[in-house]
């Protein structure tokens, strides 16, 4: 990291926060930067390959496959957040992590709530289904 | 006021105490901004990056609505073709590989940007764009094949929601490619200026976020959908 980087407003060593996607280590070398992305990429590839294998396998109890897939996806999203977007739990990342937590809360409410309510309605309407075609 | 902090080189101090264990809540008294209402506003890079991060999270919330719609409608095939009949997982795997590799190369371009290497930044950005374009071409090919086979978005509620959520992601990738081309041109003409660097940071965040959404998408829509 050269001096030009420190003279403009790009790097502010006195700030207590870092922007998302930025590693807050002033002396990070190119090699360390590439290594971080390589580790993240390797783990992401492993989890992706795992997902596709799980989807096509018969070695797992069939109703368990969607659960395994969702777990693998959440793990991979975590890998992407840590190694590609550099969201950490360090104090200088508090704002980024809190915003993410709020986003996750909304996503869980929207997706979980929609599926829960609609499947409830579906199962309540089930007895109606055979009647409708017979009447028409 | 800042003599105590000036005495030690900044990089050294930060490296020795990355978690700021020695700096409690009263850090503002030493004259640096903590972002917690003490010491003045954060640098522009932090503010721009944080603002764009908020935008990305709202984008994710929007995607979650499309995912919820697809989750509710995925069995409503109206007698039309269902997921297992339509999805070609090999095709999806190649798309996934393209986008994942693209995200990785985008990260490499960010390292090159931090090292202020114009050549490598441009090369990595170009590779990022080519992989993104390959992804889009594969997706367009898949869509065209489905429409030609009579499985267009108007066929059933399942297909409407499928085209909506996958198409929305495709639109984001298209917008990202346009942004990428613009950034390469700006970088070429203006060099590593602060405002260009802010935009590059935002583009990096955007591209990585698109890959995260694709992870959820290929898992929920394709892999879980193909098993039904």
Summarize the structure.
The complex is a heterodimer of chains A (136) and B (228). Chain A is an all-alpha fold. Helices cover 65% and strands 0% of the residues of chain A.
In words, what does this structure look like?
The complex is a heterodimer of chains A (136) and B (228). With 136 residues, chain A is mainly α. Chain A is built from 5 helices and no strands. In chain A, α2 (30-56) packs antiparallel against α3 (65-84). Chain A starts with a helix and ends with a helix. Mean pLDDT of chain A is 81; it is low at 1-12. Chain B has 2 domains: 1-42, no CATH class; 44-227, Four Helix Bundle (Hemerythrin (Met), subunit A) (Up-down Bundle). Chain B is 74% helix and 0% strand. Chain B has 8 helices and no strands. In chain B, α5 (89-114) packs antiparallel against α8. The longest helix of chain B has 34 residues, at 157-190. Chain B is elongated, with a radius of gyration of 22 Å. Chain B starts with a helix and ends with a helix. Mean pLDDT of chain B is 86; it is low at 1-14 and 22-31. At the A-B interface, α1, α2, α3 and α4 of A face α2, α3, α5 and α8 of B.
Q: How many beta-strand elements of chain A?
A: 0
Which H/E pattern describes the elements of chain A?
A: HHHHH
- Percent of residues in helices of chain B comes to over 70%
Q: Calculate the terminal CA-CA distance of chain A, rounded to whole Å.
A: 75 Å
- Largest pleated sheet of chain A: none
Note the total helix count of chain A. Answer: 5
Computed over alpha carbons, the radius of gyration of chain B is 22 Å
What general form of chain A does the structure show? flat
Please bin the fraction of helical residues of chain A. Answer: 55-70%
Determine the number of helices of chain B (DSSP H or I, runs of at least 4 residues): 8
Assembly type of the chains comes to heterodimer
User: What's the total count of β strands of chain B?
Assistant: 0
